[in-house]
Amino acid sequence: MVRKFLLVLFLLLGTLAVGAAQGDVGTSPNSVAAKVFLFPDRLLQQHRLSAGRPHVSLPPTTPLFPDETFPAVKPYKYAGKDLGFVRFLLDSDLKQDALVLVRQGGYFPSDTLDYLRGKVYFSARMLDAATQAFSTLHPSSPFYDEGLFYANAADAHMGRPEMALRRLQDYPGPYREMAAIQQAGLSLLCNDPAAYRNAAQAFTGSDFRLTGAEEALQDIYRHRNDWKSPFLGALYSTLLPGAGKVYAGRLGEGIASFLAVGALGLATWDHARKDGISHWTTLALGSLCAYFYIGNIYGSYVSVSLYNQDLRNAQDTAILYHIHIPLRSLFR
């Protein structure tokens, strides 16, 4: 009776787990060993290990509009005359219209035109083009400081924080606290805590437009290395199946692992007691139990590793946000 109950329980758990194994987004290791030992773990979990898709993305950098070729228009006016209009288009989320205007507006070459193109390209997520446009601004231009900071934000979004840091070296302009915020955030992205501490010394908290970013970066710095140990997660699941999943913040998966391994273990013990340890059913159930037990250990290791990756990605996304958003109120 006990044996039949345990077998029915295991089949029910397996059916529910397979139905739930279409979970969040994510990646799973691609080695043969990882695929073998993660298979039982995939059956018992509801998150991204089973999905095989990228687990997270930073703020999108794909251009909103295709790179169209516009017919050449002979210059006949200065971009300064349409400065307010282009800003209105961007504020109204009419990015396509602004893009057409700065590309085909018939403007004479000027710093104002380079600045407008940089702002429009940045808004349209054409970040590489935006960086190139902002980089042409002369230091004497009234748009130089704004262009510098937006170029840094674009480089950071494209995964080039080192280039942005080089651009900020010996910044002589009037927005030194904003420069310190970007230096601090970029240093965190480069995993350079010493450079962060050096930049954060310039935080004064006196400008309400910047205090939110300063406080957020300080909080990220304090929790930057709040990692959990994958080896400790594997050890927990070695001692108690599913405990490593609970350690990784996956309570439901931990309970499922515990019930599955426990049910198989009890079924193996019941058959060994009644039929003997050498009986084929005992050996089959024992092998299956060992397989799920090992999968539970390896799956816990991977789950904790993904927890750490999620934490770092969330922090990086917050850093990118806080080195960019203050620019909107600083340069209104």
Describe the structure.
- The protein has 2 domains: 2-55 and 227-316, no CATH class; 79-210, Tetratricopeptide repeat domain (Serine Threonine Protein Phosphatase 5, Tetratricopeptide repeat, Alpha Horseshoe), CATH 1.25.40.10.
- The termini are far apart.
- The protein is elongated.
- α7 runs antiparallel to α8.
- The protein has helices at residues 2-20, 32-44, 83-91, 95-104, 111-123, 127-135, 144-157, 161-168, 176-189, 193-200, 208-222, 230-239, 243-247, 251-275, 280-322, 326-330.
- The chain has 16 helices and no strands.
- With 332 residues, it is an all-alpha fold.
- Mean pLDDT is 82; it is low at 11-29 and 46-60.
In brief, what are we looking at here?
The protein has 332 residues and is an all-alpha fold. The protein has 16 helices and no strands. It folds into two domains: 2-55 and 227-316, no CATH class; 79-210, Tetratricopeptide repeat domain (Serine Threonine Protein Phosphatase 5, Tetratricopeptide repeat, Alpha Horseshoe), CATH 1.25.40.10.
Order of helices and strands: HHHHHHHHHHHHHHHH
- General shape: elongated
Q: Pairing-aware structural class of the strands and helices?
A: mainly alpha
The largest pleated sheet is described as: none
Number of strands: 0
Residue windows where pLDDT falls under 50 for at least 5 positions: 11-29, 46-60
Kindly report the average pLDDT value: 82
Rounded radius of gyration (Å) = 28 Å
Question: How far apart are the termini?
Answer: 76 Å
Beta-strand level of the residues, as a percent range? under 5%
Q: How would you describe the oligomerization state of the chains in this entry?
A: single chain
How many H/I helices? 16
Number of domains: 2
* Amount of helix: 55-70%
